[in-house]
Design brief:
Chain lengths: ~325, ~325
């Protein structure tokens, strides 16, 4: 339905193209600089969809700016404002320090969309639209998959860093396996880092004579985990579940790798979703205000192609 | 002054024997203590596979720390080594992905030579900025740390750089995972690198110059030592050691990312100090450094294998163990 509306709107815009030619609009997109895999994906998808949107709406200008830290991002917001933007899509490096800068933009009547990281007061005084992935569900989907496919599995868990996002994923996982016979043998931090995950996995293999499943909730860490298992030559491990949806790991799912049968999505492309919705708000007169939570979709060989971007750095 | 010469006259031999030996032994005493604790914590700990795993894994920090021993002995400091690992490894992988040479073995050899050359060049840059530019090594290498890290992030566009050719990967894999007569290759490389470093530091004129420069730059200068050259060469040795670590790092995961080698500089410096080299320069203990690197890796391993330590407390306990290891060393040294 939504797509058809959009299509209709596009067609209308095209038909009256000449009439609207003077009606130029600008969307500013402010995102963190690519400092690790996931943010690299954010940058890639922001640029990819910026081009698509500009093709779709002649007269639309999309400016993508990356900033390494909150202070720089606050400056970037000012720069965007001076250039005169009609809408702002922002994935804050750190939401709370940026709240005032965002409010400033919003106060001028600019349409504001916040992505992924929400400030403590996340209401209509700060933004028009909020879109995020679901950390709890990322854990829950993985937990449910394990409970359904290997009901008596003994699982080792590799956590990220001791921050709230990680805790939400752990709580979600516990909810996913609740009531099943799945047993968690161990939980240790791998710092969302390949090398650290390799070490932790090596030590798990020493410590536990029998492991059925590894849940490492992150595709970067999965790289280290798979290598450690291969080195040890252990055959008891049935499979590994990562998370996020990096191209290397989704490729494994597409190829039907037995050690990596599925993945759980926490897509960096959510910034693109926000950009599309923001463009819809500017052009299509559809109601888009509100809060959107994207599913932590289970990626299987059947649907994996839809999430595979071989040109993305992530 | 007079007491000093008196002691030296009375028993010069005994004093050197005690001094050198006990200090050199101290880190190994701490290591044995840790091995005992580990064995009590988990019976699997003392298994050969586990110890071989830990020793193999310590290879990167150990080899980098051998280079750091030279830099620190000569009174300098290099903070850029962690970023340098990421930078050199990324360039090496990019070169192998470029397919410039068709024959895989030839390509691998060329890539390894390239890594060593780049590592040496990065070290030379650090050295020249410090000596020619007369910038404090802390600041100079803090700057190059940012440069190497930034270039890596740029090369990878924030993502990962992965070795594409599976043929090359298969060919290169044994460099980390292989073994000779049951001893993992990285352990052999650690021993080889350390033996060469020990020879250079203890048996050559250059090695004595390093220690002299570290003890007192003025005295060294008046003694006719080319201080700047000695310091620069120490940075180059550090760069070469980083390159050797990279040669072992790349075959492990076959990939680098913007977070590769983060904080390794601090681990390397810690390994050097735990191994008995003074941070203020003027003395170097290469074998102690290796022992220090092994201790660092063991502490993490013991924590993980234990069943009773909360995963939230690991950092605190690691910190305590390092301090205790240093105290054990100090008390042993004082007894001499």
């Amino acid at each position: 339905m939504h797509k058809r509306l959009m299509g209709l709107a596009v067609a209308t815009t095209m038909a009256f193209g000449t009439a609207y030619a003077q009606d130029t609009k600008t969307i500013g997109v402010s995102i963190p600089a690519a400092d690790h895999g996931w943010t690299a994906g954010v940058v890639y998808h922001a640029n990819r969809v910026a081009e698509l949107l500009m093709k779709e709406h002649p007269g639309l200008n999309v400016i993508v700016k990356t900033s390494p830290d909150p202070a720089t991002q606050a400056n970037a917001l000012q720069d965007l404002e001076i250039q005169g933007i009609d809408a702002l899509v922002i994935l804050p490096t750190d939401p709370d320090p940026l709240v005032n800068a965002i409010k400033e933009v919003k106060g001028k009547g600019t349409f504001v969309s916040i992505v992924d990281r929400a400030p403590s007061t996340n209401d209509s005084s700060v933004r028009d639209l909020y879109i995020a992935g679901n950390n709890g569900a990322l854990g829950e989907v993985a937990g449910k998959y394990i409970a359904a496919n290997t009901p008596d599995a003994e699982v080792v868990v590799i956590r990220g860093l001791p921050i709230p996002i990680d805790q939400e994923r752990q709580d979600g996982f516990d909810k996913g396996i609740a009531g099943s016979n799945v047993k968690v043998l161990d939980r240790q931090f791998g710092n969302w880092n390949r090398d650290d995950a390799f070490k932790v996995m090596q030590d798990y293999l020493t410590k536990h004579p029998k492991i059925d499943v590894v849940w490492c909730q992150d595709d970067d860490m999965a790289v280290g985990v798979l290598q450690a298992i291969e080195q040890a030559g252990r055959t008891d491990i049935k499979y590994v579940i990562g998370g996020a949806g990096s191209k290397d790991m989704i490729k494994k799912v597409i190829d039907g790798d037995k050690m990596f049968p599925v993945n759980v999505l926490y897509p960096p492309s959510m910034v693109a979703t926000a950009m599309e919705l923001t463009a819809a708000a500017l052009y299509d007169q559809v109601p888009v205000h509100g809060t959107y939570t994207l599913d932590a979709t289970l990626i299987t060989p059947e649907n994996a192609k839809a999430y595979y971007f071989p040109d993305s750095p992530f | 002054m007079s007491t000093n010469s008196e002691i030296e006259e009375r028993a010069p031999r005994r004093r050197t024997w005690r001094d050198v030996d006990l200090r050199a032994v101290a880190p190994f005493a701490a290591l044995i203590l840790l091995l005992i604790i580990g064995a009590l914590v988990n019976p699997n700990f003392i298994g050969l596979t586990n110890l071989a795993n830990v020793a193999t894994r310590s290879a990167f920090i150990a080899i980098i720390a051998v280079g750091a021993t030279f830099v620190i002995s000569s009174g300098d400091l290099d903070l850029s080594v962690g970023s340098m690992v990421a930078f050199v490894a990324s360039l090496m992988i990019l070169f192998m992905n470029s397919g410039a040479i068709a024959d895989p073995s030839l390509m691998l050899v060329a890539a390894m030579v390239l890594a060593v050359v780049i590592g040496g060049a990065c070290g030379l840059l650090n050295g020249l900025i410090t000596t020619l530019g007369r910038i404090e090594p802390f600041i100079a290498t803090l700057g190059t740390m940012g440069i190497y890290r930034g270039l890596t992030t740029w090369l990878s566009q924030g993502g990962a750089i992965t070795l594409q050719s599976s043929e090359l990967q298969a060919l290169y894999r044994p460099a980390y995972f292989g073994n000779v007569l049951g001893v993992p290759v990285p352990i052999l490389i650690i021993l080889l690198v350390t033996a060469i470093a020990a020879f250079v530091l203890y048996r050559t004129r250059y090695g004595r110059h390093v220690v002299a420069v570290g003890s007192s730059r003025e005295v060294a200068r008046y003694s006719g030592i080319a201080v700047d050259r000695v310091r620069t060469i120490a940075f180059v040795i550090q760069g070469l050691c980083v390159a050797v670590a990279v040669l072992l790092y790349v075959p492990r995961l076959g990939s680098t990312s913007a977070t590769t080698g983060i904080l390794w500089e601090l681990q390397a410096i810690t390994a050097v100090v735990v191994g008995g080299t003074a941070l203020k320069g003027g003395a170097g203990r290469v074998w102690g450094t290796i022992c220090g690197a092994f201790i660092l890796e063991l502490v993490g391993n013991i924590m993980l294998l234990s069943n009773f330590i909360s995963e939230y407390l690991i950092g605190a306990i690691q910190g305590s163990i390092i301090i205790i290891a240093m105290l054990v060393q100090r008390s042993l040294t004082r007894k001499s």
